[in-house]
Specification:
4 strands; mainly alpha; about 200 residues; 8 helices; elongated; two-stranded antiparallel ribbon
Length: about 200
């Protein structure tokens, strides 16, 4: 990966742009609707199992994922987290801030590859946070793919699995915001050392 012009002005522009769009994530209704989210599973004799999902509605989720995906998914989007790597490998950034950024990226990748909190197995394989995210993102909410939609639709027919998986997806989205927030804080430290006053 290369920054087109590895100079102070370009670095300031990229970090500022990343932070500006990141701050907008916190204003979305998704965050306000997170409170009290979760799943209730009830069993009644003669009635079977009933599941209740609590949390952001589909409209709030779709608006949120359409924005947050830009920070992580592959492509040429200038907001993509990995596009900051050349900046944090440059001589413009102090080692302390390089380490802080690298730690966030490392924790993000570790989290992505780790199993869901509920340790859900499908076809004898633990589902990871990244797999769950991809199924809901590309199978229901944004830029649908045929393969992911088929997987999502299969999950949707299985209760209480689907409600649990949807809740795990919501938790994953919230965790991604935590990573973005940490990167934003590190960006602010770098910008401050470059003489840029934080808004």
């Amino acid at each position: 990966m290369k920054v087109r012009r590895m100079d102070k002005e370009t670095i300031i522009q990229q970090l500022t742009e990343f932070n500006r769009f990141a701050s907008e994530l916190f204003t979305l209704s998704f965050n306000q609707k997170l409170e009290g989210s979760g799943v209730t599973i009830t069993y009644e004799k003669g009635k079977g199992v009933k599941t209740e999902f609590r949390g952001p509605d589909d409209e709030a989720i779709k608006a949120y994922v359409n924005d947050i995906r830009r920070f992580f998914q592959k492509g040429d989007d200038a907001l993509r987290m990995y596009k900051l790597i050349p900046i944090y490998q440059s001589g413009f950034v102090e080692q302390f801030d390089k380490d802080a950024f690298n730690n966030v990226v490392s924790e993000y990748e570790k989290y992505n590859n780790s199993p869901l909190e509920m340790n859900i197995k499908i076809n004898d394989k633990l589902v990871t946070h990244k797999e769950c995210f991809d199924v809901f993102l590309y199978g229901r909410y944004s830029h649908r793919s045929k393969v992911m939609k088929e997987i999502h639709d299969k999950w949707e027919k299985i209760e209480p699995l689907y409600a649990i998986m949807k809740n795990e997806f919501i938790c994953t989205l919230n965790k991604y915001l935590f990573f973005i927030d940490n990167i934003t804080c590190t960006n602010n430290q770098v910008l401050e050392k470059m003489g840029v006053q934080n808004e």
